[in-house]
Write a structure and sequence with these properties.
The protein has 11 helices and 14 strands. It is of the alpha+beta class. The protein folds into 2 domains: 160 residues, 60s Ribosomal Protein L30, Chain: A (2-Layer Sandwich), CATH 3.30.1330; 161 residues, PurM-like C-terminal domain (Phosphoribosyl-aminoimidazole Synthetase, Chain A, domain 2, Alpha-Beta Complex), CATH 3.90.650. A hairpin with a 4-residue loop joins strand 8 and strand 9. Helix 3 packs parallel to helix 4 and helix 5 crosses helix 9. It is globular, with a radius of gyration of 21 Å. The relative contact order is 0.16.
Length: 336
Amino acid sequence: MTYAESGVDVKAGEDAVERIKKLAAETFNENVLHGLGAFCGFYKPNFDGITKPVLVSSADGVGTKLKLAFMTNRHNTIGEDLVNHCVNDILVHGARPLFFLDYIATGKLDPEVVAEIVSGISRGCSAHKIPLLGGETAEMPDFYQSGEYDVAGFVIGIVDEDKIINGSAIKEGSLVLGLNSRGLHTNGYSLARKAAFEIAGFKHDDFIEELETTVGEALLQIHLSYVSAVYPLISKFEILGMAHITGGGIPGNLKRILPEKLDAEIDRNSWQTPQVFKWLHKIGEIDDYDMYSAFNMGIGFVIVADETNANNIIEEIEAVQIIGKIVPGSAKVKLV
């Protein structure tokens, strides 16, 4: 018996790697010492301007948004979702990304599909001027259903120890600013799929007038990166805390940075909820609490600052608004 007869196609793996090499090379910068093909990636960091360098890391996936990619046979945006989700997670603490790694696993390797996935990763890395330094592509027969795969991303960033933002400086009277999201980003897809496809009975290519697009297009909107908008603010204004609104929604993520004796009071009417959430709420008859726990509801990133800095930030960037304030309490988020 050959390895191919057991389900592993070595030639397809080599083909996929060659395609990945070209896409990864497009992201390389002067800090990369060796291209893909070695047993690991080599990165020579530049710590100019940082007195106490601290490496910051994050790993994540895109959840069951992958089911939409399988359903629509659209694989070239998942990678961008992955990069943007990861870099937003380290941005919360004031870190900038240095390089990115990926992991792709599937039952049977399709080099074209892998190339599409990595094209999105490459695009996301290029937008942040960071290299795709390496990764792993695994073919595991009988482990995944036909045509399915899983992806994960890993980002390494850097921040000056004296400039780490962790929420400890948040105080009573601080204002909560919300930056708009673009749809579901990468969370809440198990609930969204059940509402749209099981309960309401829609197909991915059904056109929905109130969404002005198909179900698949609406649910596959790319996860926004907030790095280009938010990172420059860190050196200009005093930012007390930040939160990336992912799984758990505003309540589940904002509370992670609140000091013990303070609450965040969030006004749900202070921003315009995107139509896709209103549509899901209606067709799935989803409980309000679950809506705000599963979805970002139109706010993808949160900044906490005092009144003066909050107003300066509003003048500096678009698509940001005051959505709440910090009040005495016990590290809870109240939706009012």
